[in-house]
Design a protein that fits this description.
- With 267 residues, the chain is α/β, with parallel strands linked by helices.
- The chain has 2 domains: 228 residues, Copper homeostasis (CutC) domain (TIM Barrel, Alpha-Beta Barrel), CATH 3.20.20.380; 31 residues, no CATH class.
- It contains 10 helices and 10 strands.
- The strands form 2 sheets. The chain has an 8-stranded parallel beta sheet. Strands 9-10 form a two-stranded antiparallel sheet.
């Protein structure tokens, strides 16, 4: 955590997990494979190795294929059983998502998954399938009714920065009933803006760089994580009357400055 902000890193391999876990301020890892397809279910061996290598919270993706989120009965059974296996082996939560043909939330399957996850006392996270729904308001209401803990979203836009307005509105209206986790296109240039303008107190990022090995691939870059974290740090300065007035209307800045005043040497 940095300045009161929960930081989640999207990892696609054991190496990614090791790199992300080397940064003290990282709080959570979302473990996937095939990030180039948007993230799919990781292998059990990858998860078990990650669990052994990292003391961070690990939220496991269950997504059986790329493309959309309208699944048949066999795919849903696979997702459910994969989730159960991860939970039995001490995953801290499961991230999943499923839609009906009309792109509304698949409520029955979502409820079934949440009940499974909560039976282990873990976190149920609905991923960016939320951004493929037609009506974000009815969708978030459905997810609340299903007792989902958190929604990963870029505000139904390709980039979270472009989706700030929707995330802000959802956070303001529903943030006391479900967590909103902004993610998608987060960089050192926009992370603080996203948090400040949405009012959210957590953020999700891949922090990837291009690597070369008889071809190019993308993987977590610890340097990029550090750059984003540095962008969230506050300079030490005395608050003016104008600052205090602003803080009353800005939950992100209020938490940030309160944290700095309480323990400005922590970082």
């Amino acid at each position: 955590m940095i300045e009161g902000i929960t930081v989640e890193i999207c990892c696609g391999s054991l190496t990614d997990v090791i790199h992300a876990s080397s940064i003290a301020e990282v709080d959570r890892i979302e473990l996937n494979c095939a990030l180039e397809l948007g993230g799919l279910t990781p292998s059990m061996h990858t998860f078990l190795s990650a669990r052994k290598e990292s003391d961070k919270k690990i939220i496991c993706m269950v997504r059986p294929r790329g493309a959309g989120f309208i699944y048949n009965a066999y795919e849903k059974e696979t997702m459910y059983n994969d989730a159960k296996s991860f939970l039995e082996n001490h995953a801290d939560g499961i991230v999943f998502g499923a839609l009906n043909k009309d792109h509304a939330i698949d409520e029955a399957f979502t409820q079934k998954m949440v009940e499974l996850i909560h039976s282990y006392g873990k976190e149920a996270v609905f991923h960016k399938a939320f951004d493929n729904t037609e009506d974000p308001v009815s969708s978030i209401q459905t997810l609340i009714q299903c007792n989902v803990d958190r929604i990963l979203t870029s505000g139904q836009k390709p980039s979270t920065e472009d989706g700030i307005a929707l995330i802000r509105d959802l956070q303001k209206t529903y943030g006391d009933r479900i967590e909103l986790l902004p993610g998608g296109g987060v960089t050192k240039k926009n992370a603080k803006k996203i948090l400040r303008e949405t009012g959210c107190m957590q953020i999700h990022m891949t922090a990837k760089s291009e690597y070369e090995d008889d071809g190019t691939y993308y993987a977590v870059d610890p340097h990029k994580i550090k750059e984003v974290l540095q962008s969230l740090r506050l300079s030490n300065r005395t608050l003016t009357a104008a600052d205090h007035s602003m803080l009353k209307n800005d939950s992100y800045e209020s938490r940030m400055y309160a944290h700095e005043e309480d323990d400005h040497d922590q970082w």
